[in-house]
Amino acid sequence: MRLPRNAARAVPLLLLLGWGAAAAPVAARRPKVDRSAMREATSPTSPAVGSASSASYAHALKAKLLHLEGRHQGAADELRLALATDEANPYLLTRLGEEYLLLGELERAERESRRAVELQPRYYEARLMLARVLKEARKPQLAQQHLRRAIRLKPREPEAYLQLAQLHLEARAHDKAVKAVEALAAALPGEVSGYRRLGMALAERGDAVRAERMLKRALERDPGDLEALITLARLNEKAGRLAAAEEYLARALERDPDNAAMLEGAGRLALRLGSSVRARAYFDRLLADAGDPELTVQVALLFLSARDNPSALEVLDAARGGRGASPRVSFYAGLVHERLRHFEQAAAAYAEVPDGSVLAADARSRRALCLSQAGRHAEALALLAEALEENPEDTGLRIQQARAVERGGEPERAVALLREALGRKRTPELLEAFASTLKRQGRPGEALAALREAISQAPEDAAPRYVLATVLLDMGDVPGALYSMRGVLRLEPDHAAAMNFIGYLLAQHGRDFAEAERLVRRALALRPDTGSFLDSLGWIHYQRGDYPSAVRTLARAAELEPEEPVILEHLGDAYQRVARPEAAAEAWKRALDVLERMPEAADPADQRALIERKLKLLSTGAAGR
Fold first, then answer.
1. pLDDT-above-70 percentage for the chain
2. pLDDT of residue 4
3. Whole-angstrom Cα distance, residue 607 to residue 584?
């Protein structure tokens, strides 16, 4: 007997489903049915995606491809062709509304989306699309209505909640945005994206308190959520809670241990917290497989900014012998060695910079300086002569050459070289070098005579007057120094350095604090964030007895110029006056560290002895008496 056609078709389907008559008995129990999910899946909220005809389907498929390519006008044209034979298809209408939205044609987008909602009021996607269009059309109240209806249609779908939260955010109704996300969490207890996305959005809008609350709730649901951890780290760092910020980044690194940005951020935070050991752990992992010279330099600069010169050197010197070697790495290694007065090592590092590098000229001149400091004057002079053949007008090289000659025991020749250079071109730098060379030789009278002759030859040139003022001050002639520097201002009323010189000198000698502050503030207006100018302003505050203002200003000056012993000494003095002896001692010790490496930076010449006396008095409780 022949089976009916339908029965013959049914048998393979039954077999595929495992319902054949010869099937083995089922050993496992049937899984529990989620009836709420079944109701949601079978509810008429999503129309069939199919089309009424093959032609309509083909146009819809082509529209999808064009959409993915970003060709939205073409996609809209194809959807209109698809609707020609299936005009009541809410799926096609919703997609057409989206294409019009992407084209910026809001009226058409709203019309097509409304048609979809009218044809199928329980179509979730159509409600979402209409809400998007209404939001763009600046009709937020109507958009909210459709989003709430969408939530009622599919309470377990997150998109409508998130769009509603976004609407409230844009209306600056942050509490309502939080309620929308909390409603999503109640509907989907394990859902984390709502809390995370809202927390990140609130963080961008500066609402740190709500942002942190939302992100912490996201972590309660997913303790390893990277975006939440990173954003919380950023919020805590901004709030000054550095330890908490580092802890969040450490947790994030457990999930993504090779994330370069997080390793760099964690290392930077560890340095700010004073732990070079933890910073090295983060940075060593960051640099382990990178082989990136620029990254090596950045890490070294971070250690330098934290005043951890040995770690900076370790990073740079390790890279010089490995995959991270580069002219830039060698150059910076030379700078750090030079800063630490390791002149032989600095010269060796500078020698690694090849002639073809953009740093070659600087490396050669600095190498010559270091060789001279190391007592290898002949090598230094040979390098400088070679450099001067290529750049005969380079004033800096002329000054270095004269200094190397002087260190080599030929002071008269050094003076002659500078005098010759001044004959070709008079610059402030050459004048200052010439005067300083004569002063070091105990010939200040000759320096004064030379500067006064330069002024008589060029009375409108401010440069010799400026240098003359500095020489007069070194000789203890404060009135003469002030008179000469005021002459600079008469010639150049906006000479910021001259204003700072006068202002500092007035404050230092307890004269006319009002004029001193006016001049220094004018100098800062012309050259903001200049450490020496801020030092002058801080010292004016100190001399007036405004010690809290002095601390704030001098601390900023020390940040800008951490290797200036005068600024560090002033900062220590200010800390001592506001009863912060530990901070005072730290600032003074930093000044002594700089003076040990650069004794020529002392101002006055016995500055080191003066600071050591302050530290001794501080330890006995007598400082400031």
1. 90
2. 38
3. 16
Q: Cα–Cα distance between 145 and 130 in angstroms, integer?
A: 10
pLDDT recorded at residue 62: 94
Q: What is the dihedral of CA 563, 566, 568, 573, to 10 degrees?
A: 180
Tokens of 186: 């109640």
**Sign of the alpha-carbon dihedral angle for 21, 23, 25, 27:** negative
- Give the pLDDT score at 306: 86
- 155 prior amide bond cis, ω within 30: no
Contact between 482 and 509 (Cβ < 8 Å):
no
Residue with tokens 């500092």: 504
d(CA 92, CA 100): 12
The answer to whether the CB of 74 falls within 8 A of the CB of 82 is: no
Q: What DSSP letter does each residue of 397-455 carry, written as one string? A: HHHHHHHHHHHTT-HHHHHHHHHHHHHH---HHHHHHHHHHHHHTT-HHHHHHHHHHHH
What's the pLDDT score for residue 158?
Answer: 83
CA triplet 233, 235, 237: central angle to 5 degrees?
A: 65
What was the pLDDT predicted at 50?
Answer: 54
Burial class (CB in 10 A: 0-12, 13-18, 19+), 209: exposed
Specify the DSSP element, H or E, that contains 31.
none
Query: What's the Cα-to-Cα distance from 157 to each of 127, 147, 151, 185, rounded to whole Å?
Result: 13, 11, 7, 11
d(CA 345, CA 330): 11
Asked if residue 207 lies in contact with residue 174, where contact means CB atoms within 8 angstroms, the answer is yes
Instruction: Give which of 460, 406, 467 is closest to 437, Cα–Cα.
Output: 406
Phi, psi of 256 (to 5 degrees): -140, 75
Q: How far apart are CA 298 and CA 329, in angstroms?
A: 10
Per-residue confidence (pLDDT) for residue 52, from 0 to 100: 64
DSSP helix/strand/coil, 602 = coil
Q: Which amino acid is at 428?
A: P
CA-closest candidate to residue 493, choices 505, 481, 502: 502
- Number of residues in the chain: 625
Q: How far apart are CA 179 and CA 457, in angstroms?
A: 80
What pLDDT does residue 2 have?
Answer: 37
Q: What share of the chain is helix, strand, coil (3-state, %, to 5)?
A: 75, 0, 25
Enumerate long-range contacts of 269-272, CB under 8 Å, 24 or more apart. Answer: 269/237, 269/242, 269/245, 270/246, 271/302, 271/303, 271/305, 271/306, 271/308, 272/242, 272/306
Contact 578, 548 (CB under 8 A): yes
Residue 270 pLDDT: 95
Q: What's residue 28's pLDDT? A: 39
Q: Residues 595, 604: contact at Cβ < 8 Å?
A: no
- Looking at residue 19, its pLDDT comes to 29
- Enter the pTM of the model: 0.63
Q: In the chain, which residues have pLDDT < 50?
A: 1-31, 33-44, 48, 624-625
Tokens 């060789």, located at residue: 371
Beta-carbon contacts of 528 under 8 Å, excluding residues fewer than 6 positions away, are none
| CA 560 – CA 554 distance, rounded (Å) | 10
pLDDT at site 188: 80
Q: Are 534 and 502 in contact (CB under 8 A)?
A: no
Contact predicate 418/402, CB 8 Å: yes
Cβ atoms of 320 and 331 within 8 Å: the answer is no
Q: Which residues contact 13 (CB under 8 A, 6 or more apart)?
A: none
CB 127 within 8 A of CB 136: no
Distance CA 94, CA 114 (A): 9
